[in-house]
Amino acid sequence: MEKTLKPMSGYLTLVICLALFVAAVYFFVSGVDQSIAYVVIAMLCFLLSCFFLKGLMIIQPNHSRVLNFFGKYVGSVKENGLFFINPLYSSQKISLRSENLQGQTLKVNDKMGNPIEIAVVIVWKVGDTYKAAFDVERYSDFVKMQSEAAVRHLAMSFPYDNLEDDHAPITLREGGDKINSILEQELTDRLSKAGIVIQEARISHLAYASEIAGAMLQRQQATAIVAARTKIVEGAVGMVDLALKKLSEENIVELDDERKAAMVSNLMVVLCGEKAATPVLNAGTLYN
Fold first, then answer.
1. A Pfam family in this protein (predicted)?
2. Other CB atoms within 10 A of residue 168 CB
3. What CATH number was assigned to the domain covering residues 98-210?
4. What's the whole-model pTM score?
5. pLDDT tens digits, 21-54
6. Cα angle, residue 100 at apex, residues 98 and 105 outer, rounded to 5°
7. Contacts of residue 117, Cβ cutoff 8 Å, sequence gap at least 6
8. Distance between CA atoms of 176 and 179, rounded to whole angstroms?
């Protein structure tokens, strides 16, 4: 489990190291002509300076250090600045900055078995330095592999659209924020063991695979045409019904069933035709 440490400031230690180094130079220069003891003191001062200098560490903003003492986890330092720690500690640098992962475009079958292409963009960062350092081998590679697995699982769990599954509550194409939320939760569940925090996950590319893209486009166009025709027919029937009622209520003309059928047929052709109808004037009577 992660433990946060706050080590002592390293500025005093830096001053001591500089003083020991100056003393080492002074005693070494003095000992060349006077006594071997000065040389020994100079060597001791130099070694102490190097030893204390090893305990100094600089942590940049949004970075951290994981400290170990002969294989035992000591803690993590997340503050930035110059610090002094036990020189015998070993440290591992871990960045706490947010990173983008642009996943490669994957070809996978959706819930209905249709091959699709899907890619995502993920924003993530390290939240638990202990898990990132010790629970997985390389947390960056772990993020890439588990992200790909999560995207594949998401694509296989939902249909691309509702052309084949009319009762699908969520589809990849129309799911929007709900699909993104499901993806974020899937990634969080998979990457929490590595101490990774998912900040955002969005689908960046979604399309049918090239081998069926043309057929699916024609199917979508046919569905749109049928839906549009249905609306046109519904409107035309309403207009014809209104016209017959108005003619009857206003006593404009008396029509028998045969003339009503002819009138309905003509109005439906005019209202539902793709091109404008060409009028034909009847110069005779209604029945000629």
1. Band_7
2. 18
3. 3.30.479.30
4. 0.68
5. 888 888 887 765 666 787 888 889 999 999 999 9
6. 160
7. 105, 106, 107, 205, 206, 207, 208, 209
8. 6
Neighbours of 148 (CB within 10 A): 16
Angle at Cα 26 formed by Cα 25 and Cα 30, nearest 5°?
A: 115
- Residues 213, 160 contacting (CB under 8 angstroms): no
CA 90 – CA 215 distance, rounded (Å): 61
Please report how many Cα atoms fall inside a 13 Å half-sphere around the Cα of residue 252, on the Cβ side.
Answer: 8
The predicted pLDDT at position 147 comes to: 92
Q: What is the DSSP string of 103-146?
A: PPPEEEE-TTS-EEEEEEEEEEEES-HHHHHHTSS-HHHHHHHH
Domain with CATH 3.30.479.30 in the chain: 98-210
Q: Over the range 40-54, which residues count as b (16 or more CB within 10 Å of their CB) and which as e?
A: ebbeebbebbeebbe
| Closest alpha carbon to 179 in 196, 142, 204, 197 | 204
Non-local CB neighbours of 132 within 8 Å, separated by 6+ positions: 94, 126, 139, 194, 195, 196
> What is the C-alpha separation between 123 and 198, in angstroms, rounded?
6
Could you give the CA distance from residue 278 to residue 280 in angstroms, rounded to a whole number?
A: 7
Q: What is the pLDDT at residue 238?
A: 77
Q: Residue 97: which residues within 8 A CB-CB, separation 6 or more?
A: 62, 63, 125
- What's the distance, CA 2 to chain centroid? 27
H/E element, 75: strand 72-77
Residue type, 250: E
Residues 6 or more apart whose CB falls under 8 angstroms from that of 101 comprise 121, 122, 123, 124, 143, 144, 147
